[in-house]
Amino acid sequence: MVLIDLCKSKIKINTFKNKSFNKYIVEYPKKNCMPVDMSMNLLKNVINESDVIIQIDSNLTFLNENDTKDKIKKLRNILANKDINAKYRASKCEEKNSFAGIVLGKKYVLREELIFRLYKGIDDEELLKIILNIGCFVYVPMIEIENNEILDKILNGYFEDNDEKFLSFKVVMYINSYVDRASIETKILDIEEIKKYI
User: How far is residue 17's CA from residue 88's CA, in Å, rounded to a whole number?
Assistant: First the structure.
């Protein structure tokens, strides 16, 4: 009985304060010593509140290169079939330092980026599941999105500056179904408002 109690846990939210924003790390609960994947609930709760912008970046996934390519290709097909406008860019970039890279020299890999808008209330399990398998940034805009210009701005790195980012978005989060936690950054929401997403 004691072992069972030790292997259970509740959701934890760790707070890190920065000059310009707060960062919350949401640690998912454990059951039988294994993390309970809360990523789908978290994404659905955010989408039920407002439209969101999803950013997929193959450099920020935990899948191997071939799985990443396959899943992004599948996601692009799903988006096209559902008439969801997506911005896509592929470029070659230097692979992160690895032992093989040190011995053999620089290796270049394909970096794929995909950015699209999901409308409030969308409930498509297949679409959301593949997004979470790859891992994504979720941008929750301050005001209603009137056009797709903001997608280009994200794709081109306009919001790398935190001040610019938090003038346009009330929440930016990273969610991945292969990770036992989510990262949520915000300037205006407090921990009680963050809990509503969870």
Answer: 33
